[in-house]
Amino acid sequence: MPQEDIKPIDRSDYASMDEAARLKIIRDLRVYHPRFNRALEIMRLCHKSKTSGVGLQCAIIEGLPGVGKSELIKAYLKDYHEVTYSKDSTIRKILSAEISSPAKINSFVEDMLAKLGDYNPTSGTRGNKNTRLVELINDCGVELIILDEFQHFMNRHNQKVNYEVADCFKSIINRTNVPVVLFGIQDDAYTVIKSNSQLKDRFSIRFNLNPFGLEDNERVREFRMLLHRIDDELPFLERSNLADPAIFQRLYDATNGVMRPLMKLIGEAASNAIMASRDRIELEDFKQAMIMHNCLGTGKNPFAA
């Protein structure tokens, strides 16, 4: 890693910090990498499109389990999920929901109604519920709809798309003219989009939140830069040198470059080191972390060698 990529860190504050405070830093640790930030930019682009000159923009963000899709939604909601209450109305800028499995038209609409504060979301005919949902989206001033687990629009047993729910979803977009960002499992979620030509035209932005890889020098550099960023945030007197060749390859072998198991492994190892009063994470801490989380990532323990 070139020296210019390494920023000097003042770690002296950690010397006077107690164990509980340092462990809290580990628990709260969040590191946003360039592709994560790019996905946030896409969400902002869609959000602003309702009032922009380019017209309505909708996107689908895909990825394997654990790459950070749910964390991405949380990060965006933290910045923009503003709800304002008054005597006469509730203003909710973002409608965010998770699609249940298997997706059914009534449960889909009822979940959305409940999120918007409908007093009795299960009441009424299907048409009445749809109308109430459209009216609530408009009355609440919704500027962006975020739907997670979009692959549930497809039956995982027979791999058939539930066209009834998909058509209902398309109708809601058309009637409200509110931008939508979808999240789902890689390829499965986009299969639903491809099944409907109008949805495919709407969702012209497709972004894959890929795991990290070591296929070429650029991908290696990207992974090591991530590890440097994480190392910067760890509450130790010394750097743990996560991006060094002796460690980064093992971290990749243990997690396949998937963000969730990677952060869990580093977090467990860091906690071990803090409780052992060490000044940095040692290989033994990673070894014990992998023994504890023996189903993590690939299930291999490259730190045992």
Automatic annotation (TrEMBL):
Name of the protein in its database record: AAA family ATPase
Signal sequence extent: none
PANTHER family for the chain: GENERAL SECRETION PATHWAY PROTEIN A-RELATED, PHOSPHORIBULOKINASE _ URIDINE KINASE FAMILY
